[in-house]
Amino acid sequence: MSEGTTGHIPAHLPPQSSTSGLEVVPAGCSGHKGDFGEQFVRALAAAANLDASRRDLDRVGVDWQLGYLGRAGTLQFPSIDVQVKFWSKPSGCADAWHYPLKIKNYNWLAGRDWQLPRFLFLVIAPDDPQLWTDVTDDRFLLRHAAYWASFHGCDPVPPKDSTLTVHVPKANLLTVKELNGLFSESFREMLVTP
Q1: Residue 118 in contact with residue 147, Cβ under 8 Å?
Q2: Would the pLDDT of 95 be above 90?
Q3: Is 80 helix (H, G, I), strand (E, B) or coil?
Q4: I need a labelling partner for 139 at 20 to 30 A (CA). Which of 89, 101, 105, 109 fits?
Protein backbone atom coordinates (compact mmCIF):
# COMPACT_ATOMS: atom_id res chain seq x y z
CA MET A 1 0.00 0.00 0.00
CA SER A 2 1.48 3.34 -0.98
CA GLU A 3 1.32 6.50 1.05
CA GLY A 4 -1.10 7.85 -1.52
CA THR A 5 -3.68 5.20 -0.60
CA THR A 6 -3.28 5.72 3.14
CA GLY A 7 -3.85 9.47 3.17
CA HIS A 8 -0.11 10.21 3.38
CA ILE A 9 0.23 8.00 6.46
CA PRO A 10 3.11 5.55 6.09
CA ALA A 11 1.84 1.98 5.75
CA HIS A 12 4.28 0.86 8.46
CA LEU A 13 5.47 3.16 11.20
CA PRO A 14 9.04 2.65 12.44
CA PRO A 15 9.64 1.83 16.12
CA GLN A 16 9.86 4.87 18.37
CA SER A 17 12.79 5.49 20.66
CA SER A 18 12.73 7.03 24.11
CA THR A 19 15.23 9.65 25.24
CA SER A 20 17.29 6.81 26.76
CA GLY A 21 17.70 5.24 23.32
CA LEU A 22 15.61 2.18 24.20
CA GLU A 23 12.85 1.11 21.84
CA VAL A 24 9.39 2.05 23.10
CA VAL A 25 6.72 -0.62 22.77
CA PRO A 26 3.73 0.89 20.96
CA ALA A 27 0.56 1.29 23.04
CA GLY A 28 -1.74 -1.70 22.94
CA CYS A 29 0.95 -4.38 22.50
CA SER A 30 0.50 -5.87 25.96
CA GLY A 31 -2.54 -8.11 26.09
CA HIS A 32 -3.63 -7.55 22.52
CA LYS A 33 -3.54 -11.29 21.81
CA GLY A 34 -6.19 -11.92 24.44
CA ASP A 35 -8.19 -9.00 23.08
CA PHE A 36 -8.04 -10.46 19.55
CA GLY A 37 -9.37 -13.77 20.91
CA GLU A 38 -12.25 -11.99 22.62
CA GLN A 39 -13.08 -9.94 19.51
CA PHE A 40 -12.94 -13.11 17.39
CA VAL A 41 -15.69 -14.53 19.63
CA ARG A 42 -17.58 -11.23 19.50
CA ALA A 43 -17.60 -11.37 15.69
CA LEU A 44 -19.03 -14.91 15.77
CA ALA A 45 -21.67 -13.82 18.29
CA ALA A 46 -22.70 -10.93 16.03
CA ALA A 47 -23.02 -13.31 13.08
CA ALA A 48 -25.16 -15.59 15.28
CA ASN A 49 -27.42 -12.63 16.20
CA LEU A 50 -26.56 -12.94 19.90
CA ASP A 51 -26.33 -10.21 22.50
CA ALA A 52 -22.81 -10.04 23.93
CA SER A 53 -21.88 -8.24 27.11
CA ARG A 54 -18.59 -7.94 28.95
CA ARG A 55 -18.14 -7.70 32.67
CA ASP A 56 -16.43 -4.58 33.96
CA LEU A 57 -14.16 -6.72 36.14
CA ASP A 58 -12.99 -10.25 35.36
CA ARG A 59 -13.33 -11.69 38.86
CA VAL A 60 -15.06 -14.96 38.03
CA GLY A 61 -13.47 -16.10 34.78
CA VAL A 62 -16.14 -14.76 32.44
CA ASP A 63 -15.04 -12.75 29.41
CA TRP A 64 -18.40 -12.65 27.60
CA GLN A 65 -21.98 -13.35 28.52
CA LEU A 66 -23.90 -14.31 25.39
CA GLY A 67 -27.67 -14.43 25.13
CA TYR A 68 -30.73 -14.00 22.94
CA LEU A 69 -34.45 -13.42 23.29
CA GLY A 70 -35.47 -17.04 22.95
CA ARG A 71 -38.19 -18.46 20.76
CA ALA A 72 -41.88 -18.68 21.58
CA GLY A 73 -42.56 -21.62 23.85
CA THR A 74 -38.94 -21.80 25.07
CA LEU A 75 -36.98 -20.42 28.00
CA GLN A 76 -36.92 -16.65 27.67
CA PHE A 77 -33.62 -14.79 27.51
CA PRO A 78 -31.30 -17.82 27.72
CA SER A 79 -27.65 -16.93 28.38
CA ILE A 80 -24.26 -18.61 28.64
CA ASP A 81 -20.97 -17.47 30.18
CA VAL A 82 -17.78 -17.75 28.16
CA GLN A 83 -14.11 -17.75 29.08
CA VAL A 84 -11.90 -17.00 26.04
CA LYS A 85 -8.28 -18.07 25.64
CA PHE A 86 -5.95 -17.10 22.77
CA TRP A 87 -3.36 -19.69 21.71
CA SER A 88 -0.72 -19.18 19.01
CA LYS A 89 1.38 -22.31 19.54
CA PRO A 90 -1.22 -25.08 19.57
CA SER A 91 -0.42 -28.71 20.29
CA GLY A 92 -2.47 -31.83 20.73
CA CYS A 93 -3.44 -35.03 19.00
CA ALA A 94 -5.62 -35.89 16.01
CA ASP A 95 -8.84 -35.48 18.02
CA ALA A 96 -8.18 -32.67 20.48
CA TRP A 97 -6.10 -29.66 21.39
CA HIS A 98 -4.17 -30.07 24.67
CA TYR A 99 -4.35 -26.66 26.28
CA PRO A 100 -2.50 -25.78 29.53
CA LEU A 101 -5.22 -23.95 31.49
CA LYS A 102 -4.58 -22.36 34.87
CA ILE A 103 -6.23 -24.32 37.67
CA LYS A 104 -8.05 -21.17 38.80
CA ASN A 105 -9.56 -20.75 35.33
CA TYR A 106 -10.47 -24.44 35.10
CA ASN A 107 -12.27 -24.31 38.44
CA TRP A 108 -14.28 -21.33 37.19
CA LEU A 109 -15.59 -23.62 34.42
CA ALA A 110 -15.86 -27.05 36.05
CA GLY A 111 -18.82 -28.50 37.90
CA ARG A 112 -22.52 -27.86 38.08
CA ASP A 113 -22.75 -25.08 40.66
CA TRP A 114 -23.37 -22.26 38.20
CA GLN A 115 -26.57 -20.41 37.34
CA LEU A 116 -25.59 -20.25 33.69
CA PRO A 117 -23.78 -22.82 31.54
CA ARG A 118 -20.08 -21.97 31.21
CA PHE A 119 -17.80 -22.75 28.29
CA LEU A 120 -14.16 -22.41 27.35
CA PHE A 121 -13.62 -20.90 23.89
CA LEU A 122 -10.10 -21.56 22.63
CA VAL A 123 -9.08 -19.24 19.78
CA ILE A 124 -6.20 -20.60 17.69
CA ALA A 125 -4.43 -17.81 15.80
CA PRO A 126 -1.00 -17.03 14.33
CA ASP A 127 1.62 -15.62 16.67
CA ASP A 128 2.26 -12.71 14.29
CA PRO A 129 -0.57 -10.13 14.64
CA GLN A 130 -0.12 -9.09 11.00
CA LEU A 131 -1.42 -12.54 10.01
CA TRP A 132 -4.58 -12.38 12.16
CA THR A 133 -6.64 -10.73 9.45
CA ASP A 134 -6.86 -10.56 5.69
CA VAL A 135 -8.96 -7.76 4.27
CA THR A 136 -10.06 -7.12 0.71
CA ASP A 137 -12.95 -5.10 -0.66
CA ASP A 138 -15.24 -8.16 -0.50
CA ARG A 139 -14.16 -10.00 2.67
CA PHE A 140 -12.76 -9.69 6.17
CA LEU A 141 -11.02 -12.94 7.13
CA LEU A 142 -10.05 -13.77 10.72
CA ARG A 143 -7.42 -16.45 11.32
CA HIS A 144 -7.60 -19.24 12.30
CA ALA A 145 -10.47 -20.78 14.26
CA ALA A 146 -12.11 -21.18 17.67
CA TYR A 147 -13.12 -24.35 19.50
CA TRP A 148 -15.30 -24.88 22.56
CA ALA A 149 -15.22 -27.19 25.56
CA SER A 150 -17.60 -27.82 28.45
CA PHE A 151 -16.47 -29.04 31.85
CA HIS A 152 -19.93 -29.23 33.47
CA GLY A 153 -19.53 -32.96 34.07
CA CYS A 154 -16.10 -32.53 35.70
CA ASP A 155 -15.27 -31.76 39.30
CA PRO A 156 -13.12 -28.78 40.27
CA VAL A 157 -9.58 -29.77 41.24
CA PRO A 158 -7.43 -28.73 44.21
CA PRO A 159 -4.75 -26.19 43.28
CA LYS A 160 -1.73 -28.49 43.74
CA ASP A 161 -0.26 -27.41 40.38
CA SER A 162 -0.50 -24.09 38.58
CA THR A 163 -1.97 -25.53 35.37
CA LEU A 164 -4.03 -28.44 34.15
CA THR A 165 -3.93 -29.72 30.58
CA VAL A 166 -7.48 -29.75 29.23
CA HIS A 167 -8.59 -31.46 26.05
CA VAL A 168 -10.61 -29.31 23.66
CA PRO A 169 -12.15 -31.51 20.95
CA LYS A 170 -11.27 -30.47 17.41
CA ALA A 171 -14.78 -31.59 16.42
CA ASN A 172 -16.08 -28.65 18.51
CA LEU A 173 -15.23 -26.06 15.86
CA LEU A 174 -17.04 -22.88 16.88
CA THR A 175 -19.34 -21.83 14.04
CA VAL A 176 -22.56 -19.82 14.11
CA LYS A 177 -24.56 -23.07 14.17
CA GLU A 178 -22.40 -24.56 16.95
CA LEU A 179 -22.60 -21.35 18.95
CA ASN A 180 -26.40 -21.43 18.83
CA GLY A 181 -26.29 -25.10 19.85
CA LEU A 182 -24.61 -24.18 23.14
CA PHE A 183 -27.95 -22.76 24.31
CA SER A 184 -29.58 -26.19 24.27
CA GLU A 185 -31.42 -27.53 27.30
CA SER A 186 -28.93 -30.40 27.64
CA PHE A 187 -26.27 -28.01 28.97
CA ARG A 188 -28.73 -26.22 31.25
CA GLU A 189 -29.98 -29.51 32.71
CA MET A 190 -26.46 -30.32 33.89
CA LEU A 191 -26.48 -27.37 36.28
CA VAL A 192 -27.90 -27.20 39.79
CA THR A 193 -31.33 -25.57 39.78
CA PRO A 194 -32.21 -23.12 42.60
Answers
A1: no
A2: yes
A3: strand
A4: 89
